[in-house]
Each structure stands twice: as C-alpha cells, then as structure tokens.
Amino acid sequence: MLSYEKMFQASAGLLATVDASGHFRVLNPTWERILGWSLDELRSKPFIEFVHPSDREATLAEVAGLLQGNTVDRFDNRYLCKDGSYRWLGWAARVDTGEEPSEQLIYATAIDVTIDRERLSQLEPRLQDAKVYEKLFRVSVGLLVTLDPNGYFRHANPAWERLLGWSPEEMTAKPFIEFVHPDDRPATIAEATALFEGKMTIRFDNRYQCKDGSYKWLAWTAYMDPSEDESTRLVYGTAHDVTSYKELLGEFERTLARLRDTMEAMSTPFIPITERIVVMPLVGQMDTDRIHQVMTVALEGVQSTHVQVVILDVTGLRDLDTRVARALLDTAKGLQLLGAKTILTGIRPSLAQTLVGLGLDLGSIITKGTLQSAIASALTNDLNPGKPNHA
User: Collapsing DSSP states into helix, strand and coil, what is residue 226?
Assistant: First the structure.
C-alpha cells in the first residue's frame, strides 16, 4: 500500500500547510535542509516573518487571493535562512474550499530556485542590452543585415522594406546576389568572398533591385567576427542609400566633360579671317595633351575647310622649350602636306634662340613679328618661306 507519509518525508520539494492565522501547520523535513530552521522554529511564528521584507506585500496579496478561491501556479519570494542569508522559493498553492472557513488550510509546495534567480539576475543586463539592440535594429534608418556562408541574408531590418520595398522575409528567402544588379555581381561576389576570408569592407558600392524593378545604389561597410564558430560565422553589414549622390556625381562628371570640351575648344581656337586664312592664338601652358590638341585642330581644320594659310600666334604662351618648338615645326610640316602654309608670329628672343639651337629646317615656316603683319602678309599673298621679316 502506498505510504503518503513516506513520500511526504522523502520529498525534495518543500511541502507545507498554512492555517488561517498565517502559521505553518505541517512541514516536511526539506525545510530544515534548505533554510536551516527546525520545523518547530518555523511553526513558532507567522510564516510572513520569514519572508524578505521587500516580498511581504506581494506574498500577503497572493495569500488573500488563495483564501478567495484562487490558485497559485507560480509565485517566487525570498525566505530567510537561519544563517541570515535568503533563498528564493518558487511556490504553487491552493485552498480546499470545501472545508469550513475557520478550518481552511493553504496547501503549498515550493522548490528552491535561488540558482535560477541568480543566473537570471546575471543575464538581466544582457537581456536589457539585447532589447536595446533589437529596438535599434528595428528603428535604424540604415540597412542592417547578416550574411551566412551560403550566400543568404540571415537577418534584415525593416529599413530594407522602407527603401527597396522587399520585406525582411523576402530578403532572406533567396540568395542575396539575386538582388544585385547583374553588372555588379562579379565585384560583389569577390567582395563577399574576401569578407569570409577575414577582410573588412570599409566602402563598397553596388546596385540593389527594388521591388518595383528600379535600382538603388548602396554604400556598404561590413565585417566578419573571426572569433565565432566557423560553422555559424556571419558577416555583419550595414549600408546606406547613395543613389542621389551617384546621380549628382554622374551629372557633375557630364558637366565637367562638357566644360573640358569647351575649354579645350577655347584653348585652341581656329579663328577664320577670310575663307582661306585662319589664326590660331596659343595661350597659357603647353603640355603633351595640349601639343597634340593643337596639331589635331590645325590639321582637321585645314582638311575640313580647305584653308590655305594658318597663322600660329605664340605671343600668349608662357614657356617655349625645345619640345614645344619641335611640335610647332611638326605641325607646320603636317599643314604643308595638306597644301597649307604656316606663319609663325609672336616669337620672343628665347624661342628664336631655341629654334636656332635645334638646327631644324625652318623652310616650311614663314615668321612675322606681330599678328597684324602676319595677317597683312597673308592678305597680300606675300608668303615666300624664309623671306626676311620687315614688319
């Protein structure tokens, strides 16, 4: 026959009855093992005196509810041990409402949950931090994601849906590369591979498809924590929308290109004097590109307009070194092959010395002291190469 008395004595849980006056009536030996008080000491005064002062109000409220017919499935409070410390007890209790009110007892069982409560208190700061991080994750205007080694986003915050239209569930449902513009996929895959090899991405730009079919430019910063287990390692990434910046930059580059073309045209003008005479005033600094441009404009201009005389005015050039002098002679030879004569005007003493020092054949070039004399000579057909300058 089952012996309830033996089970009562051997139970690892704390078993008790409490009468209407608030005293323990029956207690099993586990009380003494857990708290250190003898059973007679526990029965000698109202049980509430063993409860931690901070927990007494809530405990008395639970007792009042029990006496009104409620059942307690779980209630935690702290009980005083004989050595002055406290232990957390987790309670379940009920009252047999079939008994006379004066004879009603609270039947209760408790377990020692001190270790669990201590662990919970240790975890509480981390749980609070986790709640804060979760809120930041959800309200962040930046796009936050984690990427697993299989190429799937593991987490995506709501900012993705606000910007691209895809829900977090849609973002994590297929390989991330499918959202990337086809032209950007090779570079993106290379960047992701480098991330899983330990490289940090400071700035990487690519285009992501919106749900409506358009694309947005995103600027990425990403990092993989090498301390994580390799099988569960994730890349942590954040991105922001730089579409307007890219569009502005593109417009700026197009404007700059137009300005550059305009400046180049202005820096090497091909100015007609008559149908057969043009002037090319050369101003500023001559570099390799500029020298090439002068020759190109002169040759193409003569070929397209059938000009017979090209006046190269070097008055406004800052420096005239051997490189520039040779280029001018090459231009004159090219023009000669196209049937046009070249007049060089504005020569300063330094250039004259350079030309003499080069020992080059100047037979294809007519020289004049001023632009006015060069134009006058061209108009009067006084174009004999090597003829002395009387202007």
Answer: coil
Q: Taking a C-beta distance cutoff of 8 angstroms, is the pair 338, 299 a contact?
A: yes
Q: φ, ψ for residue 99 (rounded to 5)?
A: -85, 160
At CA 129, angle to CA 124 and CA 132, rounded to 5? 130
Q: What residues pair up with 311 in beta bridges, in sequence order?
A: 279, 343
Sheet of 153-156: strand order equals 153-156, 143-147, 235-241, 215-224, 201-209
Q: Quick: pLDDT tens for 22-38.
A: 999 999 999 999 999 99
Residues 6+ apart with CB under 8 A from 180: 188, 206, 207, 208, 209
Position 30: which residue type?
Answer: T
Helix (H) or strand (E) holding 206: strand 201-209
pLDDT digits (tens, 9 = 90+) for 200-230: 999 999 999 999 999 999 999 999 988 888 7
Structure tokens belonging to residue 333: 């030879």
**0.85 exceeded by pTM:** no
pLDDT given at position 300: 86
Residue/partner pairs of 35-39 with CB below 8 Å, 24 or more apart: 35/79, 35/80, 35/81, 35/82, 35/87, 36/81, 36/82, 36/83, 37/81, 37/82
- Interatomic CA distance for residues 176 and 72, integer angstroms: 50
Q: Which of 144, 140, 151, 143 is nearest to 195 (CA)?
A: 151
